[in-house]
Write a structure and sequence with these properties.
Elements lengths: L5 H32 L3 H7 L12 H4 L3 H12 L1 H10 L8 H7 L11 H12 L3 H4 E4 L5 E2 L3 E8 L4 E7 L3 H22 L1 H5 L2 H16 L1 H14 L6 E2 L12 E5 L9 H6 L4 H19 L1 E3 L7 E5 L2 E4 L5 E3 L2 H15 L3 H11 L8 H13 L12 H14 L6 H20 L5 H16 L2 H34 L13 H33 L5 H28 L3
Parallel strand pairs: 5-9
Antiparallel strand pairs: 1-3, 2-3, 3-4, 4-6, 7-10, 8-9
Helix pairs in contact: 4-5, 4-6, 9-11, 14-19, 14-20, 15-16, 15-20, 16-17, 17-18, 18-19, 22-23
Length: 567
């Protein structure tokens, strides 16, 4: 077969580009129709993305529902990317009202199973072999379905039971199209809404895009699973499935099959003899240890991703969403948690400012005062069944951001993970107390800081930092002095709120110029008529027309000034 010519390759690229454009246009039109049908056009009109003529197509029956519920239903209908965006927003009580947070936490993927023939085709493309050549048995009925992939039970040659997770055909392309649409309008939102610019919505959307793209790559999930398994190998009550690496690709993941009970399945919980109270304590303890001790934690420990194996033993599944945090952030988070539990708002404020980036409008005294008022709301509650530790952290993050302090994206992920974990623990044990677990694990981490090896490590790191700055300082000072001598040192001055005065000045100058032009027209035409320098009837008609134009323009200028109320 002869290689394709340059012309043929160019035509192929052009056809591919046109296909992508048509797919984008179809999806964009579908998104607009859903927005209209659910009565969410107010958002779209503000962003200037919706033609006014589409207003009449709103579904009147749906508009009878509350706005947060309509938003949730619209996101569910739009599919994977929008559902995951809503789930991400549900952990950001600092960005959206509480009514929206509560509604978005109900978001679920409503997807039908992919026919087994399509699953077999994906496996054949990824692994280069037929299912019968790889597996001794492959169950055609999926054990779990989600928007990105579905899971089948299978046995390898030799009888080892495994879980086979296969990506749904076409889902990566569909999600990429949706992500382009979302990124486009995140940038538009920053231009239209002051709160969006202040909270850097575009940066938040880029973080969401990065996370979702990582979930689409099953190799990333396999690496996360292996790392989490290594971190928890010393925990006798926790199991993380082993990955079958030779059979794992970007769209197919094969891992050890684990039998266990899902929370809420009372029959299975009884069959596996699960101690619900002990299991709840162990689950929360393991999540806190992942966050505070390991700095690497499961980002979505909901009921579908946790199995209970008997007693207090449990297994973590679906590690596609895992989050890493550095030691400095972990140490600060421990200090914040202990300060919250010890009711010390000043210490909380100090560590928040140490971990975050304060803005121009951040007032530490007012921030401390607001943190104290927030913490006073939680006094007197004995356990998590009465008040949520995760809710307290969520409220704290909201207070901090309202004062212009930007925190790392990991804090939102921590809050979401803790909130989901607390909800699952309360489902197992309605009297579950998270505060006791947090105190015990926090104190253990603080004690670990005082060990000679850790103290020596901190002193060594501090010394290296001082050495680095000592070496850099002379070079930086020399650089600044050299730029000063050559005239290359520039002083940047930023202004605030000058746009409106400049706009008024621009308007005033335009009116003055317009008035001068009108005066010139009227004056010159009047001189021509009075001086009789125009001969012939045509010349006179043109002069009169010239004068009428000047009068009309002058009248229009006067009317616009009177209408503005600034005569």
């Amino acid at each position: 077969m002869e290689p394709a010519s340059a012309s043929e390759r160019s035509n192929a690229h052009l056809r591919s580009f046109r296909g992508r454009v048509r797919a984008y246009a179809r999806r964009y039109a579908q998104v607009l129709r859903v927005i209209i049908r659910f009565g969410l056009e107010a958002f779209a009109y503000e962003l200037d993305i919706l033609p006014r003529r589409m207003r009449r197509k709103t579904d009147v029956a749906l508009t009878a529902l509350e706005l947060p519920e309509r938003l949730r239903l619209a996101l569910e209908e739009l599919g994977s990317a929008f559902v995951k965006l809503g789930q991400s927003l549900a952990s950001r009580g600092d960005l959206i009202p509480a009514s929206y947070v509560m509604e978005l936490r109900k978001l679920q993927d409503h997807v039908s199973p992919v026919p087994v023939e399509a699953i077999e085709e994906v496996i054949r493309q990824e692994l280069g072999a037929e299912i019968g050549e790889i597996f001794e048995y492959f169950d055609p009925e999926p054990r779990a379905t989600a928007s990105i992939g579905q899971v089948h039970f299978a046995r390898l040659k030799g009888g080892q039971p495994v879980a086979v997770k296969v990506q749904r055909p076409g889902v990566a392309e569909a999600i990429e199209t949706d992500l382009h649409i979302l990124m486009l309008h995140a940038a538009q939102a920053e231009r239209v809404f002051p709160w969006a610019a202040e909270n850097r919505v575009r940066d938040l959307m880029q973080e969401f895009v990065r996370t979702l793209r990582e979930e689409l790559d099953f190799l990333n999930e396999a690496h996360n699973t292996t790392r989490l398994q290594a971190n928890l190998k010393a925990e006798p009550t926790v199991v993380v499935p082993s990955i079958v690496w030779p059979l794992t690709t970007q769209r197919v993941l094969v891992q050890e099959w684990i039998e266990g009970a899902k929370p809420g399945d009372e029959e299975a919980m009884a069959r596996f003899q699960v101690d619900a109270k002990a299991a709840a304590q162990n689950l929360f303890r393991q999540m806190i240890r992942q966050i505070l001790r390991d700095g690497y934690f499961h980002g979505d420990p909901h009921a579908g991703n946790v199995l209970f194996l008997g007693g207090d033993r449990l297994a973590f599944l679906d590690c596609g969403n895992a989050v890493a945090i550095d030691r400095h952030t972990r140490d600060g988070l421990v200090s914040i948690l202990m300060a919250v539990l010890n009711d010390d708002p000043q210490e909380v404020c100090d560590f928040v400012l140490m971990l975050g980036v304060a803005g121009d409008r951040t007032d530490p005294q007012r921030l401390t005062s607001d943190i104290g008022r927030m913490m006073a709301h939680y006094k007197g509650f004995r356990n998590t069944s009465q008040i949520s530790i995760a809710r307290a952290l969520d409220d704290l993050l909201g207070v901090v951001l309202r004062h212009g302090v930007r925190m790392q994206p990991a804090f939102a992920a921590i809050g979401k993970s803790m909130l989901v974990t607390e909800g699952l623990c309360l489902q197992l044990d309605p009297e579950f107390d998270a505060q006791g677990v947090v105190r015990a694990e926090g104190r253990a981490v603080l004690r670990d800081r005082l060990k000679p090896a850790r103290v020596g490590e901190e002193v060594w790191r501090f010394g290296r930092t001082l050495q680095r700055y000592a070496l850099l300082l002379p070079r930086q000072v020399s650089h600044v002095l050299a730029r000063t001598q050559t005239g290359g040192l520039k002083l940047r001055v930023s202004h605030e709120n000058l746009e409106r005065p400049l706009h008024r000045l621009d308007l005033m100058v335009n009116r003055i110029v317009f008035a001068i032009v009108v005066s010139a027209i009227i004056g010159s035409s009047t001189n021509l008529l009075l001086g009789r320098t125009v001969s012939g009837s045509l010349g006179e008609y043109l002069t009169y027309g010239y004068l009428i134009v000047g009068v009309v323009l002058g009248g229009w200028l006067l009317f616009s000034i009177l209408r503005s109320g600034r005569l």
